[in-house]
Amino acid sequence: MAKRQLKLGLVTMGVGGPGQTNRWLDPEIPVDASVNIDWYIDIVRQAEAAKFDLVFIVDSQFITADSPPHYLNRLEPLTLLSALAVATTHIGLVGTLTTSYNAPFNLARRLASLDLISKGRAGWNVVTSGDAGTAGNYGLDEHYDYATRYGRAFEYLEVVRGLWRSYEDDALVRDRATGVFLDKSKLHALHHKGEHFSVVGPLNIQRSPQGEPVIFQAGDSDQGRTLGATVADAIFTHARTIEQGQAFYADLKGRAAALGRDPDSLVILPGFTITVGDTDAEAQSIDRALRRIDQSFEQALAEFGRPFGWHDFRRYDLDALFPVEALEHARSSFYTQAKAITDRAIALGLTLRETVEYQRDVYASPFVGSAASIADAIERWFEERALDGINVHAGHPSQFRRFTQEVVPLLQARGLFRTDYEHTTLRGHLGLPIPTNRRSEVARFVCTGSRR
């Protein structure tokens, strides 16, 4: 059995994502970083030089004037990843695409194209869209409710995976001597008719060297966790403490096992900002300074409403108890996150000001210290099954360089992380098998049976 090894992903939000309103003021970050392909290529090549498994591009399709700078002006994920595919050779390329506002056939084709362009390095972060305002950008009066969003997502995955298996691996003969391009018996239409989708197929593109794109998922609600345990190859998440990480890890692995899956086939990848200093004390000082510089309280208050459907909390008395009635605005948005915030405020008797301040600390990281201390902490989280790997938020460029140049070599010296790529596909990096094309198996079974 191959030794379990740490996985590393890069999460980059250009000029600044949630909690990073002022990050674009860093002179090392181009003011147009979120739409600057040269900047993306440079930072992703840094990650590839450090042997990272993947780069993860987040996305949403609704903004307000209070959205983080990166959200206000950013490249569409698959367009960006296609450019990165030809500027890199090994690193996995993962993009966020919603099942609520994409047609399954079109998304399946676009992702399969990226997978071929990159020679088997594509991944899809499956989301159902938490920003309720997205509905208005697609001609709908209101966003889908939770049950509908996840019902669509389950069926959507079934359709997309079915389309990806339209061709058997040897269907395209391309034999010039015989003049045969396609073995027609190995091309299979889908003929899907379900509650939410009707798709005939087949998809007009072959499978890649890794079979099909890797499925990632990041929902933390019960429905989201069930979706992830059922269909995902990897899970993006967040944990503030090792205990939280262990609880999530055990829950998702347990759900996968209960569904008959091998728990080791589900990779858990929480995301963190990592701050490196010459000493632990210096790193703590740097971290505190950067977090306060990156976002003021007033900016945090304006952004606070996002999980509540962008409800404006600036209308309330900051020093009165948290307005629990605001939770109703989250019904079609990021309800799980909003309810957790509300429940915490009630349990601790927090004012709105205290709740916002508490939420600002969500972005605090357990990985702050000297390079050796951070390597120790990562090793502990890994060995004690709080994670299978880390999505490293690029943050300030100087800090990402310190991580790749100081922490990664320590992880490599301890045998926790690769010193060179052993595979060329994202599935290979993550230790995942190539999905079986079951439709090929069925076709062969029917063919064999018909001869008897």
Description:
Helix content is 40%, strand content 13%. The chain is built from 15 helices and 14 strands. The chain has an 8-stranded parallel barrel with strand order 1-2-3-4-9-10-11-14, surrounded by 5 helices. It has a two-stranded antiparallel sheet with strand order 5-6. It is globular, with a radius of gyration of 23 Å.
Blueprint (SSEs and pairs):
Blueprint: E1 7-11, H1 37-49, E2 54-57, H2 69-72, H3 77-85, E3 92-98, H4 104-117, E4 122-127, H5 146-164, E5 172-175, E6 180-182, E7 192-193, E8 198-199, E9 214-217, H6 222-231, E10 234-237, H7 242-258, E11 267-273, E12 275-277, H8 280-294, H9 297-303, H10 335-348, H11 352-360, E13 368-370, H12 371-383, E14 389-393, H13 397-413, H14 426-430, H15 438-451
Parallel strand pairs: 1-2, 1-14, 2-3, 3-4, 4-9, 9-10, 10-11, 11-14, 12-13
Antiparallel strand pairs: 5-6, 7-8
Helix pairs in contact: 3-4, 4-5, 5-6, 6-7, 12-13
